[in-house]
């Protein structure tokens, strides 16, 4: 972690940053976060990250900062400027950036407050800790998560601070010498990984679960779908059962930090030939090219 954070409008030393012990993020896990990746000082698809956070807050009726009410473009520009200042103070260009927002301090039992506390907005930045290169060369091994997702869960499809189930899913995976855990729904359809989205290359078509599964609408997921359509490759967002998953010729995962990650084993099952396939390689290369195009240089809005 860097020596500085952005907290409620200011860049402050990390060891001096303070929030209320009654902050709803701490007391109730009420809040949202976005994990983003900065390349050359520029966050990949920042506006989409901010839009997702705003949409989640609106869907779950959480109070937004007044500065967020000026519209997406203005809000994204404010966040972009804050991230630029933070990266500059932290002397980082390639970084893992996290934006966290909570409703702020909540009233204590029996306490009456005329004016609610303002929401908490925290941005942190740290050097990217890359996944081992061997995972990209030889593929990850994943497992099936024992926990399930439900369309009736109001938090499903949102990146909230209530992340303990995901951590337990990853703990389950680690105990089985796996690198990720694949979640299914209560009606036995593939959903997503603990920290990522899932794609299959099956019979010449790119398959992925639809967002209403429910799953998080991942930013890199969206990029891969965009790239597939640009390349005129068949795409199908549809429910996927375990039989289809195991029959797939290739499986890969997507997330902002990992980018495009091939999967070559699901527990004892070997995916396809057991080697990283051509489709996985192609989408990894296409995504890297997209990043190079969109994040090649730093502009004034990025704190240059």
State Rg.
20 Å
Report the helical percentage.
Answer: 25-40%
**Count of helices?**
8
Largest sheet: 9 strands, mixed
**How many discrete domains?**
2
Total beta strand runs = 15
Distance between the termini: 21 Å
**Helix vs. strand class:** alpha+beta
Polypeptide structure, described:
With 304 residues, this protein is of the alpha+beta class. It has two domains: 4-129, 2-Layer Sandwich (D-amino Acid Aminotransferase, Chain A, domain 1); 133-291, D-amino Acid Aminotransferase, Chain A, domain 2. It is built from eight helices and 15 strands. Strands 7, 8, 9, 10, 11, 12, 13, 14 and 15 form a nine-stranded mixed β-sheet that branches. A hairpin with a 2-residue loop joins β14 (259-266) and β15 (269-270). α2 (46-59) crosses α3 (72-90). The two termini are 21 Å apart. Mean pLDDT is 92; it is low at 298-304.
């Amino acid at each position: 972690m860097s020596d500085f954070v952005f907290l409620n409008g200011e860049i402050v030393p990390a060891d001096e940053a303070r929030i209320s012990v009654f902050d709803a993020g701490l007391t109730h896990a009420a809040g949202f976060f976005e994990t983003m990746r900065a390349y050359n000082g520029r966050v990949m698809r920042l506006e989409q990250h901010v839009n997702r956070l705003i949409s989640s807050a609106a869907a779950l009726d959480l109070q937004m900062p007044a500065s967020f009410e000026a519209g997406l473009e203005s809000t994204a520009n404010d966040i972009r400027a804050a991230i630029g200042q933070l990266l500059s103070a932290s002397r980082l260009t390639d970084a893992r950036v996290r934006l966290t927002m909570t409703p702020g301090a909540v009233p204590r039992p029996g306490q009456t407050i005329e004016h609610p506390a303002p929401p908490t907005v925290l941005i942190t930045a740290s050097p990217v800790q890359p996944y081992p290169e061997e995972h990209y060369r030889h593929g990850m091994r994943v497992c099936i998560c024992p926990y399930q997702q439900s369309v009736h869960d109001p938090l499903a499809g949102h990146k909230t601070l209530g992340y303990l189930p995901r951590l337990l899913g990853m703990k389950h995976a680690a105990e089985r010498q796996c690198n990720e855990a694949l979640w299914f729904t209560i009606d036995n359809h593939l959903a997503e990984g603990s920290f990522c989205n899932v794609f299959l290359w099956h019979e010449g078509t790119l398959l992925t679960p639809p967002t209403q599964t429910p799953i998080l609408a991942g930013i890199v997921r969206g990029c891969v779908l965009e790239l597939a359509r640009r390349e005129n490759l068949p795409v199908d967002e549809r429910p996927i059962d375990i039989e289809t998953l195991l029959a797939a010729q290739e499986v890969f995962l997507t997330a902002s930090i990992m980018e495009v990650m091939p999967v070559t084993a699901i527990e004892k099952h070997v995916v396809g030939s057991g080697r990283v396939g051509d489709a996985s390689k192609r989408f990894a290369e296409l995504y890297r090219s997209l990043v190079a195009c969109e994040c090649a240089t730093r502009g004034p809005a990025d704190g240059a």
